[in-house]
What does this fold into?
Amino acid sequence: MGTQNWQKLLMPYHQAVDELLLKINQLKDQSIQMGKISPIESVVGRVKSISSILEKINKYGFPMEDLEDKIMDIGGIRIICQFIEDIYQVANMFYDRNGKDLTVVKIKNYLEGIDQSHFKSGLGVPKASGYQSYHIIIRYPVFTSFGYREVLMEIQIRTLAMNFWAIIEHSLNYKYKGKLPENIKERLTNTALTVGQLDHEMSIIRDEILAAQKLFKMKSGTVNDILDNINNLHKLHQDQKAIDFENEFENLSEKEDLIQLILLKKELQAEVGQIKDSV
Ligand code: 0O2
It folds into this structure.
């Protein structure tokens, strides 16, 4: 296939990756704006390289014209979560959209030893390598400059720990061209078990972690608000008031007293509001 044909073939996948990244990032941002903790830690997307597509065609030996049906991860989205529980939430977001802006085609559930009842669909079939992830193959419609197309996309959902393992294992497989020495294979299987244990332990203290993250966010939001309003006082030529508030802020910051900081924030908001009303 010529370069231009490859470009034309891959174009809808690039568009689908861009659109899905935008949609998933919006879901993440909206949760944050509503003061909630998003189940999505981060999201990335990619279109498979031509050499990687050719490698897969050679590996499975199917005809070139079947490649878009046979290779289901030409376009891929990877969603990283903090906790196993978040994987369920994110997967269910896709099931809820089924028949609306996408169609769920296939589930590949490589989550071992995890309570599968949380998922709306899919039973776990662990991979021999130790790889853990939850994959959803979707059919996604795109309107390109060449017309309407539907493409298969692979959504990979996994925790930070699972992702760390998968990246390392992928690099080692690349280094050894898929033929990992036995001792490395064994170590990887052991580390996969450790990943499972780590995720399990994190789940147990999830509420503690979420409460700490909420507290941290609240503090940083309060501090930003205070600094913005001290800046506003300077802009309104209330330099002495701004300096007084600055001193109070520094004093409270040293004591790490969140309640007093929130009270200071409210006092400052009221002060700035009053001055603005009077000018
Ligand atoms: P890349 O470079 O990420 O694109 P196959 O891909 O033929 O092995 P299948 O059934 O087509 O198998 O799809 P599967 O198993 O869902 O794998 C699709 C993708 O999942 C892979 O794409 C990897 O990204 C990831 N994956 C699957 N198994 C493993 C594994 O054991 N280790 C790691 N690190 N990743 C895995 P590609 O094309 O292999 O690679």
The CA atoms of residues 139 and 152 lie 5 Å apart.
